[in-house]
Specification:
The chain contains 16 helices and eleven strands. By secondary structure, the chain is α/β, with parallel strands linked by helices. The longest helix has 18 residues, at about 125-140. The structure holds NADPH dihydro-nicotinamide-adenine-dinucleotide phosphate, 1-deoxy-D-xylulose-5-phosphate and manganese (II) ion. 1-deoxy-D-xylulose-5-phosphate binds near residues 176, 206 and 264. One of its GO terms (molecular function) is NADPH binding.
Length: about 375
C-alpha cells in the first residue's frame, strides 16, 4: 500500500489522480490533501477519502474549510506552511505535485528533504530550480517520477537506459489552438480562444501556455533536468494529434516513441504504480481509426515563447525562474483581459532583459528573483 499526499487535489491533475486511486483501492491510500481556494470540492474529497491532514492554500478560507469538515477526524491547516505540512506529512510515501506554478517549489523541496518520492506534474518547480531540486533528490535518495505526458513518455522510452546512450530527446507539441496562424491573426484573440485546446482538457494556466508554446519551452527545461540531457540535444516537433507523447533517439539511431490517447490518467497511473505496470480499463488507442500521424516544424517566429525558454535555459542561473514568474503573471493578466495575447512574450522578454543574473543561486535567491520578476511585470503595464 502506498500512502499518497496530493498538493492541488481539486485541479485537473489532482482530480484525475484521485480517479486513478479509485481504481486501485488495494494499492493506494490518500493521507493528505491540499487545494488553493475550492473549499467545496476539497471538503467533498476529505469526506470521501478520509485523509488525516487537509490544507487550504488561501489562509482566509481556513474557517470556511474547518466548518465544512470539522466533523471529520482530520487536521486542518492553511497557507504556505500548511502546504509544507502536507508535503512532509509523516505518513505519506509519495507526494503528487499537482499545484500550478512556482508555488509548488518550496513544498516539493521540503517533501524531498523528508524522503518522499515525488510524482511531479508541477513542471514550474524544475524550471525555476531544477539544479537544486535534482541535486536534493539525489542527496536524499528519492525518486522524481514524471507525470507530465511528454516526460512520462521519455521515462518509459528510456526504461532505465543510461542517459549517455541518448542522442536526442524529441518532445512532441500539439501546436495548440493557434497552430498555422500568423501574428496578425493573433492580435485580437481572447482567453476564450486560447482556452480551447485541440486535444487536452487542462487547467487554464497550462492551456494558455500550450497556446503560446511556452508550455513546450517549460517542458524542454523540465526534460533537461529530469533526464540530465544538454539543451542542444533536445528537439521539439509539432505533432497535432498528440498521440506520440514524445520520443528518444539513441546513439545508434534507433528512435523509441511512447503512444497513447491524450489522457493524463495513464501517465499519472504509471508514476503512482512505478516500477509496476497495472491493467486498467481506460479507452485504448486504435491506430487504424486515427489513420494519420503528422509532424511539422514549430513556427518559432509567431510563437516566440519557445525560443525565449531556450534562451533563458542557456543563460541558466536565476533566468529560468525569472522567465517562469514573468510568464505566470502575464498569463494571469491575459486571462483577466488586462493584456493581449501577443503581449505575453513581450512582457517576459522585457523582464528578462532587466534581470541581473545570479549564476549559481541558492533557493532563497531563486525565490527573491521570482518575487522581483512578478513585481516587474506590473511596472510594465
Ligand atoms: N492538466 C494537465 O493535463 C497537465 C498539467 N500539468 C502541470 O500540472 C500542474 C497542475 O496543472 P492543472 O491540474 O492543469 O491546474 P489546475 O488549475 O487545474 O489545478 C491547480 C491546483 O492547484 C491548486 N492551487 C492553486 N493555488 C494553490 C495554493 N495557493 N495552495 C494550494 N493549492 C493551490 C488548485 O486549487 P483550487 O482548485 O482550490 O484553486 C488546484 O487544485 C501545472 O504545473 C501544470 O503545468 C502537466 C501536464 C499536464
Ligand atoms: C498533457 C500534457 O502533458 C500537456 O503538457 C500537453 O502536452 C499540452 O499540450 P501541448 O503539446 O499543446 O503543449
Ligand atoms: Mn506536457
Amino acid at each position: 500500500m502506498k500512502n499518497i499526499a496530493i498538493i492541488g487535489s481539486t485541479g485537473s491533475i489532482g482530480t484525475q489522480t484521485l480517479e486513478v486511486i479509485d481504481l486501485f483501492p488495494d494499492h493506494f491510500n490518500v493521507v493528505a490533501l491540499a487545494a488553493g481556494s475550492n473549499t467545496e470540492l476539497l471538503a467533498e474529497q476529505a469526506a470521501r477519502y478520509r485523509p488525516q491532514l487537509v490544507c487550504i492554500g488561501q489562509k482566509d478560507l481556513y474557517h470556511d474549510l474547518k466548518e465544512k469538515i470539522g466533523h471529520l477526524e482530520c487536521k486542518v491547516t492553511a497557507g504556505p506552511e500548511g502546504l509544507v505540512e502536507v508535503a512532509t506529512f509523516s505518513k505519506a510515501d509519495v507526494v503528487v505535485t499537482s499545484i500550478t506554478g512556482a508555488l509548488g517549489l518550496v513544498p516539493t523541496v521540503e517533501a524531498i528533504k523528508s524522503g518522499k518520492n515525488i510524482a511531479l506534474a508541477n513542471k514550474e518547480t524544475l524550471v525555476a530550480a531544477g539544479d537544486i531540486v535534482m541535486a536534493l533528490a539525489h542527496e536524499y535518495g528519492v525518486k522524481i517520477l514524471p507525470v507530465d505526458s511528454e516526460h512520462s513518455a521519455i521515462f518509459q522510452c528510456l526504461n532505465g537506459e543510461d542517459n549517455r546512450r541518448i542522442r536526442k530527446l524529441i518532445l512532441t507539441a500539439s501546436g495548440g489552438p493557434f497552430r498555422g496562424k500568423n501574428r496578425s491573426q493573433l492580435v485580437h484573440i481572447g482567453p476564450e480562444d486560447a482556452l480551447r485546446h485541440p486535444n487536452w482538457c487542462m487547467g487554464a494556466k497550462i492551456t494558455v501556455d500550450s497556446a503560446t508554446l511556452m508550455n513546450k519551452g517549460l517542458e524542454v527545461i523540465e526534460a533537461k533536468w529530469l533526464f540530465g540531457v544538454d539543451l542542444s540535444n533536445i528537439d521539439v516537433v509539432i505533432h497535432p494529434q498528440s498521440v506520440i507523447h514524445s520520443m528518444v533517439e539513441f546513439v545508434d539511431g534507433s528512435i523509441i516513441a511512447q503512444l497513447g490517447l491524450p489522457d493524463m490518467k495513464l501517465p499519472i497511473q504509471y508514476a503512482l504504480t512505478y516500477p509496476q505496470r497495472e491493467p486498467n480499463n481506460f479507452p485504448r488507442l486504435n491506430l487504424s481509426q486515427i489513420r494519420n500521424l503528422t509532424f511539422e516544424e514549430p513556427d518559432r517566429q509567431t510563437f516566440s515563447c519557445l525560443d525565449i525558454a531556450f534562451a533563458a535555459a542557456r543563460k541558466g542561473g536565476t533566468m529560468p525562474a525569472v522567465m517562469n514568474a514573468a510568464n505566470e503573471e502575464a498569463v494571469a493578466l491575459f486571462l483577466k483581459k488586462k493584456i493581449k495575447f501577443l503581449d505575453i512574450p513581450n512582457i517576459i522578454l522585457k523582464v528578462m532583459e532587466r534581470h541581473r543574473l545570479i549564476e549559481k543561486p541558492q533557493l532563497s535567491q531563486i525565490l527573491e528573483c521570482d518575487a522581483w520578476a512578478r513585481q516587474e511585470v506590473y511596472t510594465l503595464l
